[in-house]
């Protein structure tokens, strides 16, 4: 099996792992938040990251991967930025309506495209831009309901979008710049993310819920779902870094919207959540956009591969990252960074 075939299969595996683990953690957290009333999303995310770090430390001890230290300031800045972006997303949800929060998440794709175009000189063809527009339109139809604006909520959403975009772009660029795998980057950045969220988590959760996470009644059932959520989060965090490292921040956001559609569908099928023809129409439009995105990116990758076989190997990164993967990259973090953040009951029902 050639290197390109191995990479192709590895990318498909990374995308599949990301989808399965993310949908699983949504279902688990929905039970934890909706049924059991544990609404402390930011603190829970800090526990996710702590368990992920411990799991990776055990994997390192068992020699499943090699520790590769690199620029400490880059790791620290990246980890803290990821933690801040998660906290801002949670605050955005807390101070905005569900509809405006969904619009915030949709804004991440065009913002990422803009930043990569301005600062990394990446080229996005009209075909790719067209497919992304269809995708955003479909997810918007399926998920956006009410749109209530307020100054504080809008400012927090802007900060959340910017920090999330920068953090996800950094996930890709750091892996390629320092030639580290997704596992190595996740292992070194996890402590900084966990500490950041562990410090600010109880404060943010108290501000948003008017409850104290340390005074919550931790029944055996609650503890079971917390442990289960933390275990699933190891796969979520790993697959997020894996997907962004093998493809790009934009492709990861496209995949994230696919997971949103799957969560809506699973919620209706398994949990009998309310579902309308508008949801169905939006999901179908979004799926069409994803298919176009994958198709156009595959064509671009094949074209660039043909050009590369006739010229010197190209080292400049391009936006040719189909959902079924085709860009050479290094291997490996969320709901959202990053760790996908399953922010609250509102988010899970949106």
Automatic annotation (TrEMBL):
Main location: membrane
Keyword annotations of the record: Membrane, Transmembrane, Transmembrane helix
Domain called Sugar phosphate transporter: residue spans: 21-294
Regions crossing the membrane: 12-33, 45-62, 74-93, 99-120, 127-145, 151-173, 185-204, 224-245, 252-271, 277-296
Cellular localisation: Membrane
InterPro entries associated with the record: EmrE-like, Sugar_P_trans_dom, TPT_transporter
Region (Disordered), start-end ranges: 307-350
One cellular component term from this protein's GO annotations in UniProt: membrane
Bilayer disposition of the protein: Multi-pass membrane protein
Annotated protein name in UniProt: Sugar phosphate transporter domain-containing protein
Taxonomic lineage: Eukaryota, Viridiplantae, Streptophyta, Embryophyta, Tracheophyta
């Amino acid at each position: 099996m050639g290197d390109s075939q191995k990479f192709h299969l590895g990318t498909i595996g990374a995308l599949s792992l990301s989808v399965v683990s993310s949908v699983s953690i949504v279902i688990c957290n929905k039970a934890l938040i909706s049924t059991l009333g544990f609404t402390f999303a930011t603190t829970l995310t800090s526990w996710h990251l702590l368990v992920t770090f411990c799991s990776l430390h055990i994997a390192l001890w068992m020699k499943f991967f090699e520790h590769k230290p690199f620029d400490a300031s880059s790791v620290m800045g990246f980890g803290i930025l990821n933690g801040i972006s998660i906290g801002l997303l949670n605050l955005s949800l807390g101070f905005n309506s569900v509809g405006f929060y969904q619009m915030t998440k949709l804004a991440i794709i065009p913002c990422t495209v803009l930043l990569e175009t301005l600062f990394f000189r990446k080229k996005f063809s009209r075909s790719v831009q067209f497919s992304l527009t269809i995708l955003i339109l479909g997810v918007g139809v399926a998920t956006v309901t009410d749109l209530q604006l307020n100054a504080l909520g809008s400012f927090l959403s802007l900060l959340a979008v910017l920090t999330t975009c920068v953090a996800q772009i950094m996930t890709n660029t750091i892996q390629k710049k320092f030639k580290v795998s997704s596992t190595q980057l996740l292992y070194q950045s996890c402590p900084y993310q966990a500490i950041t969220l562990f410090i600010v988590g109880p404060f943010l959760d108290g501000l948003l819920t008017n409850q104290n996470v340390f005074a919550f009644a931790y029944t055996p059932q609650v503890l079971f779902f917390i442990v289960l959520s933390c275990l699933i989060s190891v796969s979520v965090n790993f697959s997020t870094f894996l997907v962004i490292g093998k493809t790009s921040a934009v492709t990861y956001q496209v995949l994230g919207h696919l997971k949103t559609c799957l969560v809506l569908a699973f919620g209706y099928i398994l949990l009998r959540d309310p579902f309308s023809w508008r949801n169905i129409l939006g999901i179908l439009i979004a799926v069409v956009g994803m298919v176009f995105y994958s198709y156009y990116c595959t064509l671009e990758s094949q074209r660039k591969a043909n050009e590369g076989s006739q010229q010197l190997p190209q080292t400049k990164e391009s936006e040719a990252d189909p959902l079924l993967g085709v860009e050479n990259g290094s291997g490996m973090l969320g709901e959202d960074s990053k760790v996908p953040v399953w922010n609250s009951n509102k988010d899970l029902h949106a």
